[in-house]
Amino acid sequence: MNNGDKKSFAPVERLEGSITVPGDKSISHRALFVSAVASGISRIDNILIADDTMSTAQCLRALGTDIEIKDKTAVITGKGIQGFKEPSQILDAGNSGTTARIILGLLSTQNFFSVLTGDNSLRTRPMKRITIPLAAMGASVDGRDHANYLPLSVRGNRLKGIDYAMPTASAQVKTGILLASLGAKGVMTVREPFPTRDHTERMLKASGVDVKISDKIIQLACSQKPLPLNIRVPGDFSSAAFFMGAGIIARRSDILITHVGINPGRTGFIDILKKMGASLEVTNTRFEAGEPVADVRVRQSELRGIVIDDKELIVRSIDELPLLAVLAAYARGQTVIKNAGELRVKETDRIKAVVDGLLRIGIKAREFPDGLSIEGGTVKGGFVSSYGDHRIAMAFAVASVSSEKEISIDNFDAVSISFPEFIAIFNTLRPA
Ligand code: S3P
Questions:
Q1: Catalytic site includes residue 319
Q2: Which atom of ligand 1 is nearest to the CA of 170?
Q3: Which of 68, 71, 78, 243 is least surrounded by Cβ atoms within 10 Å, i.e. has the fewest?
Q4: pLDDT tens, 353-380?
């Protein structure tokens, strides 16, 4: 990454137009993994081409999976969960927590040795949340702080299904365990403290796997064999959210975002914005490959500060909380976000990064151990650090649309992690 990639965003007169955003990151990762463990040829249209999903593709290639990607279509030749080969190199998940947590599940079922690492950020992020349940299933994983940090070494095994109550609500961990169960024996039960995005359950069902879901309990017979997939990935809600946010705070805006995934585990952002007074309509809801998809229209709205502390809602909006904090700068009164300590172990400490950025653009904000508070005010502009985190970079680009002066952001090329076309799409919304 080029540390010097600074980008400046000037305030806009208005934002308008109709856009689509690239394919969903979470679904794209899962499509690659499920296709790799299925036997046969899968075709995934509108797959996200970004650094994170390419980390997954590269790791799977190093394990012997044939993946061809052309014009946002991936053709994957899966050989079944026992069809992987021992990698002759260290697997590198780059910046991607999703790649790391999910692939650890897959590697744990393999009768070979592997080592997984990641970039400077990922090597500081907690992995015990996945290595503990995998060890309970019979895997042998080792690394710093009792298998908590990458690099981790994995000696795979024939695992057994367990009944596991996850202490932390994490869709990545849930997915790693569910994937591991495809190479295990017995029955696997996963209990979630709060419902997380259920893309994996939906995709496994679409590939013929019998998954039982009741309340927050997911159960399946181990060793089931998924069939190849033929799906189209919906637009990424988390990428669309930046333009929803920009549309709400930009003067005289009217934006339509079509073909956006609205998985209920992802849409807490909409519920929160509505509570803050935003004008936001979700129309034309339909289903594609088991996922709900819709069009979302946003217009400029007056926001009022609120308290966001409901744990279920926090899980359903976790990736959008930095953006919400930035939007709260434009709200009347104070906004408080609590019970969101997970933000500290994302690509960067997102509580610290957002508070730092808000202070630098003239907004009063304060950190708590598990959240932050923001006083709505006048966004003056200034120079902020993205901390090399894609979502922090884009959140502060959004902050610029109605700021007094421009906002400059360092390391803006971090957006290539999830949304390389961010600036190009943003520019189509500005009047010529
Ligand atoms: C993701 C799950 C969430 C989310 C991340 C993507 C996924 O992380 O923050 O951006 O694709 O499963 P956790 O599982 O750590 O909550």
A1: yes
A2: 14
A3: 71
A4: 999 999 999 999 999 999 999 999 999 9
- Per cent of the chain over pLDDT 90 is 97
Structure tokens at 304: 């009022």
Task: Give the distance (Å) from ligand 1 centre to CA of residue 174.
Answer: 10
pLDDT in tens, 334-347: 999 999 999 999 99
Ligand 1 centroid to residue 362 C-alpha, Å: 31
pLDDT at 3 over 60: no
Q: Ligand 1 in contact with 99 (CB < 6 A)?
A: no
Which residue bears the tokens 């040795």? 113
Q: Which of 92, 198, 295, 319 is catalytic?
A: 319
Collect all residues with Cβ–Cβ distance below 8 Å to 238 and sequence separation of at least 6: 24, 25, 266, 319, 320, 391, 418
Q: Which domains are assigned to the chain?
A: 7-23+234-428 (3.65.10.10), 25-232 (3.65.10.10)
**Strands, E, within 13-138: which ranges?**
16-19, 39-45, 66-70, 73-79, 91-92, 113-117
Atom of ligand 1 nearest to the CA of 168: 16
